[in-house]
Each structure stands twice: as C-alpha cells, then as structure tokens.
Amino acid sequence: MSRTRQPEVSNDVARLVTQIRAIIGKGEELPPERVLAGLLNVNRHRLRLALETLRQAAELPRPVIRRNDSPVLKSDVVVQDTNALEVIELRMVLEPAIARLAAVRASPVQIAKILEAATTPRGVTRTIGDIAFHKLLADSSGNQLAASLYAFLRRVGSDHRLHVPAVSAVTRERIELRDQEHRAIAEAIAARSPDAAEQAMRQHLRRVQHEIADRLNPLATTA
C-alpha cells in the first residue's frame, strides 16, 4: 500500500514546488512556514519537503538560525591582539567566498536588496552604508557559519581601538568609487556569476587593504 501512495506524495510536493516558485518569481519574500502552510492549504511536513527541494536546487537560501549562546571568542578580547591590517587580511579570505555563495544562493528578494544597497543613499554615512551592504551579502550566502564569522570580524574591525584615521576627508567622490565597486559585486550576484562576484569582491577589498596600509604608513606613499 505504501508503494501506491509514494507517487501521490511526490506529485503533491512537485505541485508545492511550482506554487512556491510562482511566489518567489513575483519578487515576494516567503512568509514563515506556519503562515505559508496555511496559504497553500498543506501540512508543514509536505511544505518542508518542497522547501528542501528548492534549497537543494539553490533556488532558496538555507534558513538563518539565530542562537543566543555567547561566542567562545569575544571581540573585545580579540581586538587586544590584532590590528586593522589583520582584519582586512581575514576579510579577503572570507568575503570573496561569501560573494560567490550569494551569487548561487541569494533569493530574488535578497538580490533586489543587494542591488539597492550597493549605492549609498544621501544622508547615510560611508561606514553605515558599507556595513549594510556587506552584511546583506553575508546573510544571503546561505551559510550561517560564514555569516556569523563575518559579523564577528566586523565587530572586531569596528572597535575604536583599531580605528585608523583617514589621511584626508571623506568626499562624495570617494564614496562613489566605493559604490562603483559595490555595484560590480551586486551586478555579478544578480547575473548569477559566482566567478565574477568573487573577483569583484577581491578587487574591492584589495583597494581597501591598500588604503589602510597607506593610512598606517603615509610616508611610504610619498617616498
């Protein structure tokens, strides 16, 4: 009897996958499972089978699991034994991989938000705009560990003890240069091109690395 039921279950899941794809295709963000199950008039077990099918096909990101456990490493302790150059070095290891994952796994809604965040709105500071953009990428990677590592790394890098004063004032031209680099990353993700997204992120962070090095040793650039 179980053999006669299996095709029926598979067909139900396939229909659910089609219905969920239609919702995603409209650019709408999926509601919580309980609400979505009610909208589609299905039980949550079958809904989860359909959602997992879409996640395995990289059409949906993995859910972000929030935990309240304190991390083993605390940013205020780590910051005592590091510096701004070490932070950007580690970002150059982590964030190109995050951009690559986002190009494969980000949902249409997440991609729309990434494209919008790539340009810093008037009235938003350079730092806030930068953190918002990079956080969106981490959250869109579908990898909770990578997103958590990124968040921890930025907490360390944002500590005032690691602040490196700018040699000159932040101008609109400098913000526009940064936004151009962000847009290159965002457009590669929107085009579902992981190689291009990874490369654009690497180029962006390499420039940031050079900028930090110049701030730490301004005489080297004039010698």
What gross morphology would you assign? elongated
Largest sheet: none
Number of helices: 11
What number of structural domains do the residues give?
Answer: 2
* Series of secondary-structure elements, N-terminal to C-terminal: HHHHHHHHHHH
Task: Quickly give the CATH architecture of the largest domain.
Answer: Up-down Bundle
- CATH-level-4 superfamily name of the largest domain: GntR ligand-binding domain-like
Cα distance, first to last residue?
83 Å
Total number of strands: 0
**CATH C-level name of the largest domain:** Mainly Alpha
- Which class do the helix and strand fractions yield? mainly alpha
The residue ranges in which pLDDT falls below 50 over 5 or more consecutive positions are: 1-9
Helix content: 55-70%
Strand content: under 5%
Oligomer: single chain
Q: Can you tell me the CATH topology of the largest domain? A: Four Helix Bundle (Hemerythrin (Met), subunit A)
Mean pLDDT: 83
The gyration radius over C-alpha positions equals 21 Å
GO molecular function, one term: DNA binding
Pfam families: FCD (PF07729)
Keywords: DNA-binding, Transcription, Transcription regulation
Protein name: Transcriptional regulator NanR
